[in-house]
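Field guide to reading this record: the first block holds the primary sequence, the second block holds the structure written as discrete tokens, and the final block holds curator observations. Each block starts with its own label. This record concerns Urease accessory protein UreF, catalogued under organism Pseudarthrobacter equi.

BLOCK 1 — SEQUENCE
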Amino acid sequence: MPAPRCPPRRGPQSGPSRCSVTVGGGAVSSYQLALQQLVDSALPTGAFAHSLGFETYIDRELLFDEESFGLWLRAFVSRSLAYSDGLAIRFLYEGVDLWELDALLSASLLPREVREASLKMGGRLLEIGAEVFPSAALELYRDLVTSGRAAGHQPLAFAVVARSLGVPLQEALAAYLFATVMSLTQNAVRAIPLGQNAGQRILRKAHDDVAAAIEAIAHLTPDDFGAVSPGLEISQMRHERQRARMFMS
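BLOCK 2 — STRUCTURE
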């Protein structure tokens, strides 16, 4: 049985924990297992119900195979995800006010379905996090949302939980971005459709895209926040009026 190497924490905690456990003679930081749980596809946040715009490209016959989806995914990660969710996570870690970041996300997510998706998945993550990974910082965010002073966006809920667990920024970004990539790829496998092996090849190729996005996020400024690709936003808006749909966004 793993043996704790630091005393258990009691009561609400706002600071990161650096506790580790020993497994098979080696030390494993406690946040590593928690982070895997946090980004696992089995976490019931509803990510399976969202395409975040790629279904519009399928409807227009622009996405139809492994290669075309891989190109869309690369553009989404580099020109949308990095400039919105990824940058929001970095700013929260750097101490930017949570309420301010929440308001910026609400203002910058112009497509209604994408904004609602962020709030629905964020709400579920806040609920799950409060039960499974409670902290004073998470309770503060929930209070802001409950009182109507914040909306409750998914990347901020994730960042609050990850930071309270002691997850370093680089690892938090890698986990969040790649979890989004995995969710979208799983949805594309069903929607295009693609084979399971094709999905895994896409994920492998996306490793470099995620790494490049993390590097880019480190050098972005507040002026870059929300500077996403207009084409991606337009496709997300068109989805609202698409006649036949599998996904909510």
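BLOCK 3 — OBSERVATIONS
The longest strand covers residues 20-23.
Residues 113 and 240 are 7 Å apart (CA to CA).
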